[in-house]
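Weekly modeling sync, notes
Attendees: AB, CL, MP (scribe)

Item 1: holo prediction request
CL wants a bound-state model with 4'-deoxy-4'-aminopyridoxal-5'-phosphate before deciding which constructs to order. AB pointed out that an apo prediction alone won't tell us much about the pocket. Agreed to run with the ligand included and paste results into these notes for async review.

Input as submitted:
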Amino acid sequence: RNMTDLTIFDEMESSVRSYVRSFPAVFTKASGYKLWDTEGKEYLDFFAGAGALNYGHNEPRMKKKLIDYIQNDGITHSLDKATEAKADFLKRFNDVILKPRDMEYKVMFPGPTGTNTVESALKIARKVTGRTDVISFTRGFHGMTIGSLAVSGNSAKRKGAGVPLTNSVTMPFDNFMDENESLDYLERFLEDNGSGVAIPAAMILETVQGEGGINTARFEWIKRIEEICENWGILLIIDDVQAGVGRTGTFFSFEKAGIKPDIICLSKSIGGYGLPLALTLIKPEHDQWSPGEHNGTFRGNNHAFVTATESLTYWEDSAFEESIKEKSGKITAFLNSLVRRFPDLQGEVRGRGFMQGIASPVEGLSSKIAEEAFNRGLIMETSGGNDEVFKLFPPLIIDDQGLEEGFGIIEESIKSVLA
Ligand code: PMP
């Protein structure tokens, strides 16, 4: 049998729904910012596991640490037991990430994935405040389990639950209204106690909305949100699952807003190697769970601790942040030039750092561009309520040559689609 033949998935009746049809290839190998399919065709990865592969595929130093660890019979599964790999990670995370940023947080392992950290954040916020509702924002995305879905501003995804989801109130995200209108609206809503509006336990926010269309909150807007939360005793949860770990240019996406969120959700690239790991950072005064109030079998994956510890080496040297800044400037310049040179795109450049894209109001155009790019050997995703944005999400370690090659393919794809 020809293993490149995708029909094998359809023939296995039990798995007919287990691959994405928009990337019609069977992948077999990956390194850095490249992937190969079973026919040996090479692809540039401008998707990076939706932000789970910020350091690229099979990053050599992490791979070596992992192989050594396995070779030496390092613990794989430990449930809540203390392990050396866990201790090493916690120490490194504190030394390299938290301390230099003057951040005092307790680190919790809520379960293996992004939605687990969001669920734990919603849960602790309710326990701490004794309140029920959570304010979320238009076009936000926080995961597919009931709680995370309830605070996701995405009706298509919410349909998966079949019934209305409760205890969540959606407010306008920064780009939904002009200037500071969304903030005024939010404050008036909170002040309107006479209508029986319940003051919420928390607000949950992505600083740049990955799935919702690369909608980008201004830093001053984020700062005002923090102030509003403080005024009302509402806990601020920043969901940095996609925007965190360097994706927007700094380790945490909110650093330049100068805020200290009550709760921070991390996953995707925190494991460093594409291995499942999630962290919930909580302020010490909110650490109010008794033992057993939040546990789970796969909390903390020791292989992911090993790679995560090694990944933090990147953050010990400011050169890494500098390189993200320099390369993301090239991405912005490229996207601006596309918008200028291809007026038929009616494009709008959105995003921050390595989390940028172009929104086009032309129905189906962004998806067609992504499809054409795939045929030409570049993997790219679309996002937004209408898939109106094609997003450039290469690993942060991509070199100039990779960027240039990718830009070339994207440009050719646009030319071909608009022709
Ligand atoms: N929050 C955000 C901002 C995300 O982008 C995602 C995943 N795309 C999640 C939460 C959920 O993460 P996971 O798919 O690992 O559950």
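Recorded for review: The longest helix spans residues 318-341.
Action items: CL to compare against the apo run; MP to circulate these notes.
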